[in-house]
Amino acid sequence: MGNTVSAAELMATNIVHAEAAEAPTLPKGHPPVGEVKMASGGGANPPPECPMHNKEQAIKEKPILVSECPVKHDDSDINPLNMMPPMNQNPAPDQPFPLPKDRQVSSIPKVTEDGRQEFWVYPSQQMFWNAMLRKGWRWQKDDIAPKDMDDIIKIHNANNEQAWQEVLKWEALHARECGNPKLKSFGGKATEYSPRARMRSWLGYELPFDRHDWIVDRCGKDVRYIIDYYDGGMVDDKYKFALLDVRPAMDSPENVWDRMKVCYMRWKFQLESKVKQLSN
């Protein structure tokens, strides 16, 4: 859900030009993967065999679909919650083939004014295409096929799902305080490298190809998370492409303390593992 276009350009290059293994086929009837402006009443539910969703939850809970993928464009008509312009599902004039307009509901809960349960929704392939065109990406003949766009949107969605799971690991430190954190807003900052990313680059590591800042609502308290996306190489069978560095921003004493605690726990675990290996 971040700077879709900057990430998409790298994804498309890998998909179109790399000799990657054929992606697995989704269950029959699974809706095309797709993100944002929620329409009342929800979308079509995935088939029961789909591992990404819970059947009973899909039946009992019909979240109102809302939102957009956070691609930062100009300042006109931008939604401040996700840095997205109004939804555009219209085919581009020079578009070489039609694209699906279906969108996938994410597992990421969204903050609502009335407390209703809603989840962020990923963009459709058509919305994704239009977003890339707005960023100046132009397609040449035979550069990309419908299958490539399908893979790109799946990679995008998988990266966001992975990022949310990493956020939840940090939020587990505050489980007693809040058991149901939600994503309030987010935005892409692909050209604004975090201090940590810059320091890593000084040590010889690559810079991330994308960065997102997510604002998580911890039961009334806003917590900012920084997510750096690094090139992870080939796409795996779960459409995971990027290596994520997710952590709370060091803009509050509580966030600093959380990072110190996690750093200590990691150091302690590694030390205990080494001692155990030496004793065996």
Give the gist of this structure.
With 280 residues, the chain is an alpha+beta fold. The protein has helices at 4-17, 55-60, 125-134, 146-171, 195-202, 253-279, and strands spanning 105-110, 118-121, 182-188, 210-218, 221-231, 242-248.
Describe it:
There is one protein chain. Mean pLDDT is 76; it is low at 2-6, 12-67 and 70-75. The protein is globular. The chain contains 6 helices and 6 strands, in the order H-H-E-E-H-H-E-H-E-E-E-H. The strands form 2 sheets. Strands 3-4-5-6 form a 4-stranded antiparallel β-sheet. With 280 residues, it is α+β, with helices and mostly antiparallel strands. Helix 1 crosses helix 4 (146-171). It has a domain at 252-279. The chain has helices at 4-17, 55-60, 125-134, 146-171, 195-202, 253-279, and strands at residues 105-110, 118-121, 182-188, 210-218, 221-231, 242-248. Keywords: Heme, Iron, Lyase, Membrane, Metal-binding, Mitochondrion, Mitochondrion inner membrane. Belongs to the cytochrome c-type heme lyase family. Its EC number is 4.4.1.17. It catalyses: holo-[cytochrome c] = apo-[cytochrome c] + heme b. It holds the Pfam family Cyto_heme_lyase.
* N-to-C SSE string, H for helix and E for strand: HHEEHHEHEEEH
> How large, in whole angstroms, is the Cα Rg?
20 Å
- Strand sequence of the main sheet, in spatial order? 3-4-5-6
> Which shape, going by the Cα principal axes?
globular
Helix share, percent: 25-40%
Structural class: alpha+beta
- The percent range for strand residues is 15-25%
**Number of helices, where a helix is a run of at least 4 consecutive DSSP H or I residues:** 6
Total beta strand runs: 6
Main β-sheet description: 4 strands, antiparallel
Low-confidence stretches: 2-6, 12-67, 70-75
The mean pLDDT is 76
> How far is the N terminus from the C terminus?
45 Å
